[in-house]
Amino acid sequence: MSAPVTMPIDIAEIWRMLPHRYPFLLIDRVVEFESGKRVLGYKNVSANEAFFQGHFPDKPVMPGVLVIEALAQAGGILTQLTRGTSAEGRLSYLVKIDNAKFSRMVVPGDRLDLEVTIRREIRNMTQYCGIASVDGQQVASADILCAEVQT
Fold this sequence. Notes:
Shape: globular
C-alpha cells in the first residue's frame, strides 16, 4: 500500500507526475484528493501566458481547448495519485471529449479551479468528468476519455 498523500501538492511534485512542461503544463497546485474518486487543483492564469499573445492581444481569453486540457491533466494527476506509482514508461493521451460546455471566458488574473472525478475505468482507459470554475462560477465542463500507453 502506498503512503498517504499530503496536501497541497506543489509544482515540483506535479512535474514528477505529469510529462507536460511550459507552456503546456496547465495545473499549478492540487489542494484536495479522494483516492479513486476526485481531485481538486488549480491554474493561476497570468497575463504572461504564451497563448494570450495571439488569443487575443487586445482582449485576452484563455482558449477553451486549453481549459479542457487543464481538466485532462488534473485527471492524469488523479490517476497517478490513486495508483501511488510512477508514470515512468507510460503516457496518457486524450482520446475523446463529450458534452463540452463553455459558460464564461477565462481571463488574466483568474484562478481556474479544476475539479475532476473518475466516472469509470476500463483496461487502459479512464473516463473523467471535469468541471472548471472561477470564483465559484462554472466556466466549462466536459466528459473526458484518456488512454494510457506504454512508451
